[in-house]
Amino acid sequence: xxxxxxxxxxxxxxxxEDIFLGHALLIEGExxxxxxxxxxxxxxxxxxxxxxxxxxPGLIDLQIYGAGQDLFSADVSTAALSxxxxxxxxxxxxxxxxxxxxxxxxxxxxAIRVFEQANPRVALGLxxxxxFLNEKKRGAHPAEFIVPATVEHIEHLLAEHTTAVKxxxxxxxxxxxxxxxxxxxxxxxxxxxxxxATFEQAASSLQHMHAVTHLWNAxxxxxxxxxxxxxxxxxxxxxxxxxxxxxxxxxxxxxKISKQLxxxxxxxxxxxxxxxxxGIYQHLFQHDRYALPDGTLSGSALTMLQAIRNCVEKVGIxxxxxxxxxxxxxxxLIERTDIGNLNNGSLANVLVFNENYEVQHVFFEGQQVGAx
Length: 372
Description:
Layout: E1 5-9, E2 12-15, E3 18-20, E4 23-28, E5 31-37, E6 46-49, E7 54-57, E8 59-64, E9 66-67, E10 70-71, H1 78-90, E11 93-101, H2 105-118, E12 123-129, H3 151-157, E13 165-170, H4 177-185, E14 189-192, H5 199-205, E15 211-212, H6 228-235, E16 240-244, H7 252-262, E17 266-269, E18 284-286, E19 289-291, H8 304-315, H9 319-325, H10 328-333, E20 350-353, E21 359-364, E22 367-368
Parallel strand pairs: 1-6, 2-7, 8-11, 11-12, 12-13, 13-14, 14-15, 15-16, 16-17
Antiparallel strand pairs: 1-4, 2-3, 4-5, 7-20, 9-10, 18-19, 20-21, 21-22
């Protein structure tokens, strides 16, 4: 079988800190071969004219609950997982953490079992947002599924020594040392969220955390006499923070302030859900957002590409930086050097979009998978 060789030409190539004009991105098989001047493209490469589009790494979403018509927690199946992957690929999201909000142990364990059976390639792992949260900041999470963290419960939840769970959102002020160390021993990335921590509590408990979940949402506020969890994040030297840039979950001016304070520690997530009228989480679409039947704001209606556009057009973040917030920064957090960039040898996960932020081409591991 002949290895496919493709050269994407006539576009603006964004790779980390570098922008290339008049160059081509070379893809051979599953991997990127590098970025070369167009005149240096070997004769055996198929030229693909992207018509002045933006060529960038495939986007990475570390918190999303479903896509298309599938909410994973409402349909815990390999078929739903496959459909979610295909929907996200069409949006230019080539890697993601499939997320489940606080739920019963049986649903969590079913999700782990299904994920391991499916052995997906686009989904990187499961992100469990809960159940070890602070009920005072539960947001759209039902109170009956929020429970204290114990070593015994963690062992029960992850009894099969699963590697499917890659990330957990926890309330850091309620997670004791033994529970935090156990989760870290299981190579789970810990993100602080749904927390009512005071500044002092947050500052002392963030030592085990790698990140903060949806900055500003479902956490103690930034107050001039108690800076809370946001203040602790801003004062921390290395902690990363995800943010939902839809102008609804977080005002665009607050995003601007956050960006000025956090720099390359701030990264994009969608926190996206889909319409669902059954099960624990019934998400109703209301013009530009999702809410529970009681009116509580739930997940967003964003795509990662829309979040990039909002960063550029509503917040004033340069395009190259907005792309990094959706690719290289989340890749750095999960310690993946083979995605989130267009370097020689990296997986050929590539997005091409036009000046209207419309998807033109998507490549996943070197194969064109379609566009919206």
